[in-house]
Design a protein that fits this description.
- By secondary structure, the protein is of the alpha+beta class.
- The protein folds into 2 domains: about 240 residues, no CATH class; about 100 residues, Roll (Pdz3 Domain), CATH 2.30.42.
- It contains 11 helices and 14 strands.
- The strands form 5 sheets. It has a 4-stranded antiparallel β-sheet. Strands 9-8-10-11 form a 4-stranded antiparallel β-sheet. Strands 3-4 form a two-stranded parallel sheet.
């Protein structure tokens, strides 16, 4: 059985055991399970204490930038929808490489679990911080499950106190959530930079492992070993190989240097692209060696660990950025919808809520059309 499937099963088993043990403190609503906590809320008060003035100024910046991002999001949503290009999609976890059909983005299960909790935790924590800046009590915080599947988390402010807030006070709270995600995105970019610097200082790629496909030029000449060069052009990475093949034409004669010797062959026509040359290899894997400290090849287990780390950073960045932008769209119940409702109320009084509702309907129509209809229309 696949290791990922076993790990996923153990994860859900642990969730099930936890929920059974804590069942007295749970709320059940037709498959939705809610677990609430009060412990730890005082830490937010400690964080806010003595910093309310500066946090309000920072919150004002959040609001201004949030409005610009929201308007930009509407512009690109409308533009790409009219051009029949999908700009938004649904992201769901998958196990053992299973791919969802249509507009759904399949994300490896563990990447999704870690990333989604990071998204929610940073988002809700920022809402909580700016609620306390405006002296709104926090009743509790908690996590939401659908059966055994964790689907969200929340911070629950005192509703009556929050509704008393007006204008910029409310808008700062609404805008803060997405900026928690933008903050995580910035941290992830820093981690990518630092990780790359450290990795580059310790290891380097020297060539490519590959598998030979049957009935191809590579099989005919018995291509084997670790690929080092093609026509005296160094091949240290997958991108190096892609760059070469993007310029190569069917029928072109090339010489490949590997750790097993030199192999001359004539490129075939790529099975999917007529004007592109084809060697007849796939499943290329970069081969790394240590630069310092150790000697020899880097163990495959360490390469797999690095691959997992970079994959995790990639999805952390994509999901936090995507959620931050989507959440600022001016459509209730997204934070951007309530942000613009408050703006409309300030300018148009009681009609502001109606205007926000109309705008929300338009944005959700565009979103639905962009996610589900664009690809169908293009396929017709």
């Amino acid at each position: 059985m696949d290791l990922e499937i076993i790990a996923t099963f153990i994860f859900f088993l642990a969730i099930g055991i936890y929920l059974v043990k804590r069942r007295k403190g749970l709320e059940f609503h037709y498959g939705i399970i809610i677990k609430r906590w009060k412990k730890g809320i005082e830490k937010i008060d400690k964080l806010v204490k003595g910093k309310k003035k500066i946090l309000r100024k920072v919150g004002n910046i959040f609001v201004a930038i949030g409005i610009l991002i929201s308007l930009s999001g509407v512009y690109f949503l409308a533009r790409y929808t009219l051009q029949l290009k999908q700009v938004f999609g649904l992201a769901l976890p998958s196990v053992a490489g299973i791919k969802y059909p249509g507009p759904v983005i399949s994300i490896p299960f563990w990447y999704w679990i870690i990333a989604i909790f990071t998204v929610i935790a940073s988002h809700e924590t920022m809402h909580a911080i700016f609620s306390r800046v405006e002296k709104v009590k926090l009743k509790n915080y908690g996590i939401i499950f659908f059966l055994l599947f964790p689907i969200g988390a929340f911070v629950d402010p005192e509703k009556r106190e929050f509704e008393k807030l007006k204008g910029m006070k409310k808008m700062r709270v609404y805008a803060a959530g997405s900026f928690g995600n933008f903050l995580v995105f910035a941290i992830v970019l820093l981690l990518v930079f630092l990780s790359t610097k450290i990795a580059d200082s310790l290891i380097e790629s020297v060539g490519l492992k590959f598998e030979v496909l049957p009935n191809t030029p590579a099989e005919k000449v018995g291509l084997e070993g670790i690929m080092l060069k093609i026509n005296n052009q160094t091949i240290k990475s997958k991108q190096d190989l892609i760059n070469f093949l993007n310029k190569a034409k069917p029928g072109e004669n090339i010489t490949i240097l590997t750790t097993k010797g030199e192999f001359s062959l004539s490129l075939a026509q790529h099975p999917e692209e007529k004007n592109r040359g084809f060697i007849g290899i796939n499943n290329t894997i970069e081969v790394y060696v240590f630069k310092t400290i150790f000697s020899g090849h880097v163990p495959e287990s360490l390469i797999n660990l690095l691959a997992f780390w970079y994959g995790l950073l990639f999805w952390l960045a994509i999901l936090n950025l995507g959620v931050a932008i989507a959440n600022l769209l001016p459509a209730k119940p997204l934070d951007g919808g309530y942000l613009f409702e408050e703006i409309f109320r300030n300018f148009f009084g009681k009609n502001g809520e109606k205007m926000a509702n109309v705008l929300s309907a338009i944005i959700f129509f565009l979103l639905f059309f962009n996610i589900f209809a664009v690809n169908l229309i293009r396929a017709i």
